[in-house]
């Protein structure tokens, strides 16, 4: 059975999982990362989205932003994020305001990102796609257009392959869906293997975070105080959740 319930219920489920976010004592007083997340929630709400949590009934719980009021005359657009904090950090506030005028927007947190998680052992792209599909099913979405960014591009590709009758169009951004491990060893990318890629994508120190920004930003910040980077790592890249995300990479 698939159940839709309020975000307050999420915290009860999370207590029973190993892969949950931790809170550093420093961030209990004040956190710039948490403050920005609060502002992003306000932005999403202002532009007509509401936060929902769906219990898929198999140990998997999915958080997703959905329209407060779905307009039947507009196409449904699913936005799938890449590696990072949560979906809000990658799709707002510069993108969402431009899209809500033309689409019914759905923005899920993929499993082990944001407020989505599972007790199941499956870490494949196809499993992520199935979870997203079931969330859209709960929201009565029959046809959709999908945009996948980075890791979300892999999930979008799998979603389109598995559910051809539902996915009308797909846009894949910055995702090497045809990437093979030998491409890494051949020097096609800045990392030599998946271990090095995982260390970069899941930074645990300010130095690693700066390295990631240099590689992924078109215009990387010139100087970012270490205290801000530590705060972001602590709040958004939980050490308890990191092993689960590493399994996704491999």
Task: Present the secondary structure layout.
Elements: E1 3-5, H1 10-14, H2 25-29, H3 32-46, E2 49-55, E3 60-67, E4 76-80, H4 87-91, H5 96-99, E5 104-108, E6 117-118, H6 125-138, E7 144-149, H7 151-162, E8 167-173, H8 181-185, H9 194-201, H10 206-216, H11 226-236, H12 242-249
Parallel strand pairs: 4-5, 4-7, 7-8
Antiparallel strand pairs: 1-2, 2-3, 3-5, 3-6
Characterise this structure.
With 250 residues, this protein is of the alpha/beta class. The protein has helices spanning 10-14, 25-29, 32-46, 87-91, 96-99, 125-138, 151-162, 181-185, 194-201, 206-216, 226-236, 242-249; strands at 3-5, 49-55, 60-67, 76-80, 104-108, 117-118, 144-149, 167-173. It contains twelve helices and eight strands. Strands 1, 2, 3, 4, 5, 6, 7 and 8 form an eight-stranded mixed beta sheet that branches.
Write a concise synopsis of the structure shown.
It is built from twelve helices and eight strands.
Proportion of residues in β-strands: 15-25%
Cα gyration radius (Å): 18 Å
In N-to-C order, the SSE pattern is EHHHEEEHHEEHEHEHHHHH
Percentage of residues in helical conformation: 40-55%
User: Helices and strands: which structural class?
Assistant: alpha/beta
